[in-house]
Amino acid sequence: MDYTNKEPLLSLKDVDISFKNGKNVFKAVQDVSFDIYEGETVSLVGESGSGKTTIGRAIVRVNPLSKGEITYRGKRISGKLSKAEDRDVVRKIQMIFQDPAASLNERATIEYIISEGLYNFHLFEDEKDRMQKVEKIIEDVGLLPEHLTRYPHEFSGGQRQRVGIARSIVMEPEFIVADEPISALDVSIRAQILNLLKKFQDEKGITYLFIAHDLSVVRYISDRIVVIYKGRIMEIAETEELFNHPLHPYTKSLMSAIPVPDPIIEKEKSLFVYEPEKMHDYSEEKPSLVDIGGGHFVYGSPSEIEKYKAVRFS
After folding, report:
1. How far is residue 151's CA from residue 112's CA, in Å, rounded to a whole number?
2. According to the model, what pLDDT value does residue 2 have?
């Protein structure tokens, strides 16, 4: 996909996010910049604690930024907004959460859970229109209209995640942050949920930021992948480019952890361990995120970048 003359739908520019604990300040995200274009799926991948969810929550205006800005269709959506602007962001940018059990109100019926956004933004003409929208979306996610009178605890994890997806999609959003939406589910259910998200993208043109810690999952769904380590971006590339030419050692370590279906090969393969203290010397040269060509960005010092270019284009 050629992005040269396209305007990004959502942009993060020099984003820092810090959390205070008494007098201590923990910088969870530092100097993060990347763009997401309309209709694509960008996956944000890294191990637990790397800042993925923190970024996702910043996009939906839960986590405030300590530096930088987030823009949507060219307008800033981070920091203080008017009530009307804030409502507009909430309506257009939705989030699907990791734990389908914790993100649904156990005391509410499925009908009410899905209708809540419709009520809050009055996205229906009358009761008949509201029920038609709710019944259509519940069928679109693979559940039945009779499920609407039930409560979340009566459903399996996969079914609850379908309800969570229905709750987001019924708002007709343009952009969805999917925060590890399949990691709490059985392996057999994961493909169904990924297919569901892809179906809505094809039908409604929804743009996704898909957050995950497993590279093998995102290969199927992503147009581009952003690799993050300890709050800093290490590599950005189109999916097949990244899988065919992983350059940063952290990306290589994530790749080496992908399970192989063959038990003999899996048993014999060696894991590549990322050890930043041994692998990088930034005492004299300062590192930065550089496009080495074709939209393939890698984080490194000037001499490292030259090595990456030599490896990639040899």
Report:
1. 10
2. 60
Reading the block at residue 157, the tokens are 């994890």
pTM of the predicted structure, to 2 decimals: 0.93
Q: What span, in angstroms and rounded, lies between the C-alpha atoms of 112 and 246?
A: 46
CA distance 35 to 26: 25
User: The sheet that has 75-76: what strands, in order across it?
Assistant: 24-36, 10-21, 67-72, 75-76
Topology of domain 10-312 in CATH is Rossmann fold (3.40.50)
Q: Which amino acid, one-letter code, is at 81?
A: L
- Give strand ranges (E) for the chain: 10-21, 24-36, 41-45, 67-72, 75-76, 93-96, 175-179, 207-212, 224-229, 232-238, 288-291, 297-300
Local structure of 198: helix, strand or coil: helix
Domain boundaries, the chain: 10-312
Neighbours of 229 (CB within 10 A): 22
Average pLDDT over residues 92-116: 90
Can you tell me the distance from the alpha carbon of 102 to that of 127, in angstroms, rounded to the nearest whole number? 29
| H/E element, 56 | helix 52-59
In whole angstroms, give the CA distance from residue 301 to residue 281. 9
Residues 120-157 have pLDDT tens digits of 999 999 999 999 999 999 999 999 999 999 999 999 98
CB 32 within 8 Å of CB 231: yes
Q: What is the dihedral of CA 141, 95, 82, 35, to 10 degrees?
A: -110
CB contact at 8 A, 186 and 154: no
CA–CA dist 203, 314 (Å, integer): 41
Separation of alpha carbons 213 and 233, rounded Å: 14
Mean pLDDT is lowest, of 42-56, 58-72, 100-114, 254-268, for: 254-268
Among 103, 110, 117, CA closest to 170 = 117
Average pLDDT over residues 195-200: 93
